[in-house]
Amino acid sequence: MSNNSNALNRLKAIAQQQANKSSHLYGDSIVKRESLQSNDSKLITQSLNKLIDWINNNSNTKSALKDLDSRGIYPSMFQLFNHYDLEIVRLVVRAIKIVALKDAATNEILRSLDGVHLLEQLLEQYYDAEILNDAATAIECLRRCAPYSVRGVGFGKYSEQTGTFQWYLEFYQLHFDDVGVAWRVWDGGIGLAKWVLDNPSIFEGKDVLELGSGVGVCGIAAGLISKNVLVTDYTDKIIQALQDNVKRNMRLTSQLKNVTVQALDWVNDDVPSPFGYEVIIGSEVIYDVKLVEALANVIYLSLTPNGTFYTTCATVREGIPEFIKAMQDRDFNVEQTNFPSHYIPDTKFDVYFFKCTKKNTLLKLQQQKE
Fold this sequence. Notes:
- Helices cover 49% and strands 18% of the residues.
- It is of the alpha/beta class.
- Strand 3 (207-210), helix 13 (217-222) and strand 4 (228-233) form a beta-alpha-beta unit.
């Protein structure tokens, strides 16, 4: 507790120093440091909501986030991690996550304020799904955030003699403002990709569909051992990034030949090849209760009889019970286990692994659509 107290005192001092350096007034569109340090929970809540809206809607992101630093806002935000009001903690962690996702340069400031350590403490203190989810996302960004960069990932056996992996893939990353959370390589995607390559018997000679591909780490890795892989997502910028990453990695390794890209909106688009895929994969595609039915429909309509869907999902995600029910309603056997931690060694929370196998009996199409 003494270390935590010292950290909070340091943050207070930094906030005061930074506030003294700037006399800039933001007007009604931005929160003041003093409001975040108020004893009035209602005022703090209103201020955090205003701050989140301002960050999300400011067209000049880098300048806006730099202004927040000059006003001592970030240290004041970190001080709220110990607030007694759970909703305030949720809001401030959400704000930190948004900042971390938006600008890599600002992450240097957050790291200098011991942001990673303070966020990791939240993972130990809280069991609230929203806090755990947002804190974990912010931690990943503070550790590895690099928009508009290329991230290389090694897979398979590592040779001590040559200092190389069996496979090496590269992925061009975008920016959060471009495509939201799909902008970068996430550790969850790397973990599922490693599992895929560790289980070649499931994929060799198979036609594979990946849902929610993002920048394509899992689907492109599957292309190293599968007969054919179709990687999918739903916005133009993500599709362009997927196409670029497929081309980049086809140049890197001759083993990657039959990976194609197609847009797929789960809600509005027809499936690419009805009942045509023996295996479907997707990393962290269970995250929104409102999309569970659409996801289950796409899986049902795309899998061959006795086909199988494999996915990983952090235990803090929303929609897990609803997903299980939706799949069982469509006559799937659903196996839920814990994903081996060595595939994602840095994670601070548990990850589920789902194996959903289609039974022989097919539901009537009308029943499926309801």
